[in-house]
Amino acid sequence: MPTLAAGSRTALVIHGGAGVIDRNSLSADDERAVRADLDRALDAGHAVLAQGGSALDAVSAAVVVLEESPWFNAGKGAVFNAEGGHELDAAIMEGHTRRAGAVAGVRTVRNPIRLARAVMEHSPHVMLAAGGAEAFADTRPEIARVAPSWFDTPRRLQQLEQARQRERSGQAQAPGTYFGTVGAVALDAQGRIAAATSTGGMTNKRWGRVGDAPLIGAGTWADDRCGVSATGWGEFYIRAAVAHDVCARVAYRGDTLAAAMEEVVNRVVPALGGDGGAIALDREGNIAMPFNTSGMYRGWIRPDGSRGTAVFAE
Ligand code: ASP
């Protein structure tokens, strides 16, 4: 593929989840490791964009890197559900065509974002769940499968123990006690936008609980001017239709991306009792990354080439 002519404006923004990220419990070594994986995800997405590739390929590439990293709650390193297993959710959307694909509650798919994309490209449907999504994966030889225990990590097991303890002592779900959902939004040189989100959901979830991440318009959205990937307390993000609301404000009210994100993430969601963050970009390459938890793992490459990663509020 040719490399891009100078002046082509591409942009990429990623997240590795919002939540209670305690400065004292995140060691300097851990923070370095997390940020190194964010950088690798930025590199993977940017390599696609720099060669004139599509926003869709860029967000897929970035999210696969984050799914493979045990630091994030997606793919390897996903949180445990109440039965001590994992149920993974993911969605992907291409803005200019409004094509979308999503999966919920899959247990053996190594990279759920790849299955979401396969739903979009190789099925007549938008969203497949649980056993049906697994059966669809059986028809797609390119989708890598693993034993459910492959997703296990000691850190997530410890979080399950803590959640069970809280539950036994009758405490309600505390705000911000979700961690490490991943997502990416990209603008390619042709001005196309795509968004992708992947997650293990919330620790100790039960009854086939599905969060906002795989729901088009709640945790994931892209249209021809705006794309969003959210991370936060999913029940509230669903009820606020966060990702679609941000882009609707940009489209119908002419809000700037920054104003729309600020209003939805920092006012609409908290007014309902929820919390979290989100990442977004628009067709000019503006990027917004607000959150109202103690931290949100995030990274960005702006159209001028400047890039960075961050964990806490700057
Ligand atoms: N939004 C995700 C969910 O509710 C959790 C997260 O963002 O960490 O499943």
Give the overall average pLDDT: 95
- Please report the first level of CATH classification, the CATH class: Alpha Beta
Number of domains: 1
Measured on Cα atoms, how large is the radius of gyration? 18 Å
Strand order of the largest sheet: 4-3-2-6-5-1-11-12
Helix content: 25-40%
Put simply, the count of helices is: 8
- What's the count of strands? 12
Helix and strand pattern? EHHEEHEHHEEEEHHHEEEE
Label the structural class: alpha+beta
CATH superfamily: (Glycosyl)asparaginase
What is the global morphology?
Answer: globular
Structure description:
By secondary structure, the protein is an alpha+beta fold. The chain has one domain (11-310): (Glycosyl)asparaginase (Glutamine Phosphoribosylpyrophosphate, subunit 1, domain 1), CATH 3.60.20. Helix content is 34%, strand content 23%. The chain is built from eight helices and twelve strands. The chain has an eight-stranded mixed β-sheet. A four-stranded antiparallel β-sheet has the order 7-8-9-10. Helix 1 packs antiparallel against helix 2, helix 2 packs antiparallel against helix 3 and helix 7 crosses helix 8. The termini are far apart. The structure holds aspartic acid (ASP). Residues 17, 73, 178-179, 181, 199, 201-202, 211-213, 219, 231-232, 234, 237 line the site of aspartic acid.
